[in-house]
Request: fold
Amino acid sequence: MSASSAAAKTAQKEQKDDSMESYACQPVTVYEKLDKIGEGTYGTVFMARDKRTGEIVALKKLRMDKEKGGFPLTSIREIKLLKSLKHPNIVELKEIVVGKKPDSIFLVFEFCENDFASILDKIPRPFSESEVKLIMIQLLSAVKYLHENFVLHRDIKLSNLLMKDGNVKLADFGLARLFGNPLRPYTPKVVTLWYRPPELLLGSETYHTAADMWAVGCVFGELLQHKPLLPGRTELEQLDLIFKLLGSPNVRIWPGFDKLNSGPVAASLTPKLPHYPYSELRHRFPNLSEAGHDLLSRLLTYDPSKRITAAKALQHPYFSEPPSPTTPNMMPRFPSLLDKHGLSSASGGLGLAAAQPLSAPAVVAAAAASRPKKIIAVGGGMKPIALPAKTSTRTESKGDGEEEVVVETVTVSLNALNQAPAAAAAAALASRRSSTSDFGKNFGISFVMGSGKKRKREDGV
Reply:
């Protein structure tokens, strides 16, 4: 077979792989646009209401102005894959609707309140380790499902992780591809730079599920330290940050590295990088347990063939050691466009009305029994909120006319907490013995104490 005929057959197969089935499309007028969520390379996203059911959805209008060859290839892949994927931690594509013009095409997704990148930008404290564990378990569950169905996501990053009612939803499948055995060559220019594995940075065109797992490791580190793990601005700087964090690779720990390192891409990059003899991973995460370090190291392993799989990562001892993963209903809630429009999620979320991000895992208020004062626990930046509660307190003199109110017992009904702007840590708050400062440190709560116009503040955050 000639090279030209082989190339033609390959092109036909690619076209067939990326072709779409026929879908009967409703007009976009069945949805009422409520607000603009954001705009990106491939389209504009709106919050909308389904006039037929009242359900709140995300309406993504595809950008067709730069498409000269018809329908965007990335959108074809996204639609084809999402129509076949059903998992609780993968965003649901509900339907495709059309406008009056031929190039007016909309994808209808389930509505998710926030993405994790914007949450990290807003909250002043990192997620707790229990919360990180839940996020990682749900992300790994979604990735395991994808890989078992022979799908590479190729763009896992924090901004593509959405939150809905305390659950993680993996989104944006524009770069996703089906894979098989033997592996086909793919472009290495995928995965956002901060989450791109070293084999792709060095120009490898044959990669597999390990590329997604490296990105999962970067997300893990980012959640733990409350900032991007490897924020490089160029490919050269990205490799330098990786080598500095993990130590420079060699053929002993990464067989085949010498071949990649002698390729045309690596030849222009690696000679410019200094040699780093040691890993700084433990120094970067001093409070992470031995099991936590082991999981992070396995996710960020240089050799793709030795990098941990999603299935094995879910069975890692890190997730069974204390603290236990929290549950979705105990995850903190954050303001969203739902609150702006006075709406709640379809599944009955809390529907926050606060204008500021929540930094505390719970909001509690108690009336002091011994004095006409109030002890009010508030999240960072929030206004004090009074809730029905029973308390046992005592007042201690600290000298210089200062007094400290010590909380002996705080009992707040779960129903009352559920009506507050944050419901996390409700069970742990029942019958808790501690001083106000200890109480705040344990739960990330800031206390305001006072009577009338006079008040003093004690921060336990």
The chain has three domains: 24-110, 114-329, 354-459. The radius of gyration is 26 Å. Residues 354-459 form one domain. The chain has 16 helices and 17 strands.
